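note to self — DONT lose this again. spent like an hour looking for the file last time. sequence + predicted structure for the chain T wanted, 332 res
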Amino acid sequence: MVFANIEYLLLLLLLLPYIVWYVLKRKRTEPTLQVSTTRMYMQVSRSWKLYLLHVPFVLRVAAFVLLVLVLARPQTTDNWQNTELEGIDIMMAVDVSTSMLAEDLKPNRLEAAKQVASEFINGRPNDNIGLTIFAGESFTQCPLTVDHGVLLNLFHSIKGDIAQRGLIEDGTAIGMGIANAVSRLKDSKAKSKVIILLTDGSNNRGDISPLTAAEIAKQFGIRIYTIGVGTNGTAPYPMQTYAGVQYVNVPVEIDEQTLTQIAGTTNGNYFRATSNTKLKEVYREIDKLEKTKLSVKEFSKREEAFTLFGLWAFVCVVLEVLLRATVLKKIP
């Protein structure tokens, strides 16, 4: 425990002159009676009130000490603790191109992917997980972290119209998405390093080809699980027109061959998710991965701890007043 205003503890020095004054005052004001002998009083028992005579003084001193401690603001100490957890390092690479707004998965591909991925994150509290998003370009939305609350907030903030609003170049740069995720995992000390790549198209943007990025991942011992999202044939896609939103059927063009090669190069697996249920299969596979120990530094914030001291000071004051007004009441 620490004190935010430790200088107030100097007020406790005032107790020394107060105690001296109390002792001297008792000696000067204590009544005396001269008698020839005290033999007749030897058999008389002492009143129980005699044992309470100095209790009000003790209560007053205790109340003063407790009030000084309240002024000094006692606080629980900062607690840094190193712990070891079992987990793996995972980077999730999610396609956010405009085609992810197709509604063959409900409510659409991107929202379905976010929902299933969120359930996966909640089910693995000990894993280091990060998030990369890509369309025509790629960037890290959240670096590797065990603070999954922050990760989920950043994940849920991703909107399907991010490319339509020009916040990111539209297209599908699978190679760039992998390369970005690899840059976050390459220095990891975990034995199991995984990228979960989710896309609904084929590579048509970026300076790095998907297979080249997969080879780089392999060099760093990173396993890639690829997921092709979308039904077979065509999918309903919402188009904004002057008459409102109109749905058109667009062909589903997933480069399954490339996605399979990426997974094969890194000893991962390729999954085709034609529904929300199918999308969960990849996460069941990841649960089978070997786990490794992570060193985590936990931090607990300071908390005020003066309430209990203030409560006991109040109790001491009340008890002193009650004693002086009842059993120890003085008659002039």
